[in-house]
Amino acid sequence: MVGLTPYLPYLLALGVLLLAIWAGRTGAGLIRQAGRFTPHPGDDRYWGWAGWGWWGLVGLAVVSLYAHIFQLEFQPFRGWGAQLAAWLGSKGITGVLTLVLAFTLYRLIPYLMSRVPLGSSEEFTRERVRRQTIKSVLESALRVVILVVGGLFFFSNLGLNITALVTGVSIVGLAVSFATQNLVRDFINGFFVLFEDQFGVGDVITVGTVTGTVERFNLRITVLRDLEGRVHFVPNSGLGMVSVLSRDWARAVVDIAISYRQDLNRALSVFTDEVHRFYHDPDWEPVFTAPPDVVGVHQLTETSIGLRVLFTTKPKEQWAVGREFRKRVAERFLTEKVLVPATQ
Q1: Transmembrane region positions (predicted)?
Q2: Which top CATH class is 250-343?
Q3: How far apart are CA 219 and CA 233, in angstroms?
């Protein structure tokens, strides 16, 4: 220990620097996270200033501690450093270690959740959707638990009465809940969506006028991404009627128009033959769950006769099946010289 004495101030200075970098980045990150909840993008600059202000406070603390560690006659920083060092020595170190542990556990949650098995197959199934949804909800719940428990331990270490604090928070939360009844409804609706397995992460759903894939779900909010890549945040209290397009099985409804000048029986024969060829194609047969239903003529317009076929497929396969069959029937009609409205 005697040999380390000359180097002790430098070791302490290095520890202070590392701690300051961690505190600065963590605090600035939390400020940025808080800024995302503001409704107006113009407020971002204020949160940016708050982040720089936090770094300024951290820098001030570092300068004060360095003045104390190296016994510099740099007032009032040396006095501030002495007070800060005394606080760190009594309660600060334990509090900081509590925050570090909570922060580490918080950052480990995505890694731990990635270890949760979703099934042995990559195929889209209800079991996989259910597991992915529960995993998403569990991840959100763990984040909240770690933040709350870590915060309580931190404030307890500072000498605050946790019982009184929890009681006060409960009273304030009860009062706020009356003003934020939609938030309560969000959690209730989210619970029933999860409990009844109405839909889950990976499902394609329609909510109102929006259709998209469920990217994230928790008890408060459902996040959808539509075909154009836009992300929609839907509070669970506003879901209303939800249409699930990927539940158990799906159906591709394919309509093909032919010309009035075309012999109808021959067109139907070519159309039906192409349906069966497609259904028995080894590359596509695994996606079907039932034989196709050739409806035949289903619509007459001023310019064309509409033919329809129904393909029953596995969930989320109906769009690929529809595209492939339209391509095949277009090529077949061209080869067989079946007239369509554009060629009449």
Answers
A1: 6-25, 46-69, 84-106, 136-156, 162-180
A2: alpha beta
A3: 13
